[in-house]
Recover the amino acids of this structure.
DNA sequence: GTCCCCATACTCGGATAGCAGGTGTCCGAGTTTCTGGGG
DNA sequence: CCCCAGAAACTCGGACACCTGCTATCCGAGTATGGGGAC
């Protein structure tokens, strides 16, 4: 089990957008060059973030992506959910009674991680001096 | 990102073995029947647990698997590691400096979950009356 | 009655296909900008 | 000098292959059991 590379790209892109605090959109090619990814692939990933309302897309020349309003409150968990989906990490689809004690343990543990990811925002990283 | 089904099978099998507190080994067919899985597939999974020293395998007639000594201290995390591997959930293989601030956040969150999984043992579930 | 041997049945374990989801790529549609000619 | 039209360049977005890793299966090797015959 691993987080997908797409999640990594999404997180780094969000951080990059936040660091370059530009009012103008940033083109995909710039962002892709930073991470050594195909621009078209990164575009596909960013589409998901747009649909979640975290970033806005601008068409045409000098177009690109920029952070949406209220981005300061976007947490790591929000980004991960946008890419990986909101479903639980563990699904016990057996039929042993209404509640599976194992699943309860797994979900409780997962909640611990999510709680931490929910506290951490992209904005937090900027204050601490970061690497792109 | 999801936990593999194999992990689910492993956890349930461990719980089942712990509940049937038998000194005699339990055959794969019995265990597989409980979870509606192919016996050969379950065998493959249990092999990993054997290599980690959590269960012991007995060949021959009336053979099967049984919990190893000291099983009371086996945690969820031990089982998950045995199946999923011990590598981190998140790998940032870029080259932006020696430390990736994003990865640090991810690892810290992952640690929260692992700490919870490390506290939970199979033996804990038995005391609380469980479903197979 | 006791011991030994053999056939049997059951088990484990590694090697082998099938499939799904993530990874990556390509091309078409749409939009803003810039340039150049005409008024 | 100002305005409008057209072309161009750049962008986004959905649709299409590839490939690693999980899921599942099959078959061979090994071992403890149980029965039967000999002593």
């Amino acid at each position: 089990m691993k987080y997908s590379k797409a999640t990594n790209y999404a997180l780094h892109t969000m951080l990059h957008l936040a660091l370059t605090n530009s009012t103008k959109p940033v083109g995909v090619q710039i962002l892709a060059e930073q991470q050594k990814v195909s621009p078209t692939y990164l575009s596909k990933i960013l589409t998901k973030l747009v649909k979640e309302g975290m970033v806005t897309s601008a068409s045409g020349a000098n177009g690109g992506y920029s952070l949406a309003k209220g981005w300061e409150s976007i947490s790591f968990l929000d980004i991960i959910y946008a890419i990986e989906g909101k479903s639980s990490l563990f699904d016990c689809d057996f039929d042993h009674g209404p509640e599976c004690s194992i699943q309860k343990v797994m979900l409780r543990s997962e909640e611990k991680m999510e709680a931490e990811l929910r506290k951490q925002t992209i904005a937090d990283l900027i204050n601490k001096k970061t690497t792109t």
